């Protein structure tokens, strides 16, 4: 797939966070004309596995958000098992360290030109400074995101998952190459829920996000397609 989205709507990645495939497939069908990729995350993948990826792939390329985090050999093996599903993007936790990321990249390369974009998740967008401190990290979320991002890209990640608050910093520090995928995005007035570091879709894109990941504000709307269209209309072309 193209390394960058070609239109405002193509920047949108709806998160199909559903516990059953029928609901996810219905959403995929409705949202496909209004987005670039569709995200299969842990809830759907744990419920329905590979068939969920295959079903959603019939509508749009799949961002497979499984947030791999284990020893290098296990992560490489997991990726080997996932590659036949042909996801366009796969996530792994940057906190797994450089050897884990390098092992994932080496495994991904075996898929050739078709290989997925590997995205390293930095500090989850649900975490504020206090939550980060509770894990033993004394630095600010921005400082920790920068440290993890530099390490992950140097180790072989193609891009990063970060909050809208760190996108401009990462773009300035790392240059134009790393793909930035940004969740924690909330249209003005919508419920923040468990997200801590948020901004609007237009703010996230202005800060340098290539793609924005949006779940509940789209999937929980009375008319999910209309919600996605409104978000696209709020973005710069
Ligand atoms: O990797 C992700 O996509 C991710 C990373 C992160 O730091 N924060 C985050 O919210 N996500 C995912 O993005 C989606 C956000 O969903 P909403 O909060 O409903 O918009 C969920 O599917 C999360 O799993």
From TrEMBL:
Database matches in Gene3D superfamilies: Aldolase class I
Q: Name one Pfam family in it.
A: OMPdecase
Report residues binding substrate: 17, 39, 65-74, 125, 186, 195, 215-216
Q: Name the keywords, alphabetized.
A: Decarboxylase, Lyase, Pyrimidine biosynthesis
The record's similarity note reads: Belongs to the OMP decarboxylase family. Type 1 subfamily.
User: NCBIfam families, alphabetically?
Assistant: PRK00230.1, pyrF
Read off the PANTHER family from this record. Answer: OROTIDINE 5'-PHOSPHATE DECARBOXYLASE (PTHR32119)
Q: How does this chain assemble? A: Homodimer.
* Listed HAMAP family: OMPdecase_type1_B (MF_01200_B)
State the name under which the record lists this protein.
Answer: Orotidine 5'-phosphate decarboxylase
Can you name the source organism? Answer: Neoroseomonas lacus
Q: Which gene encodes it?
A: pyrF
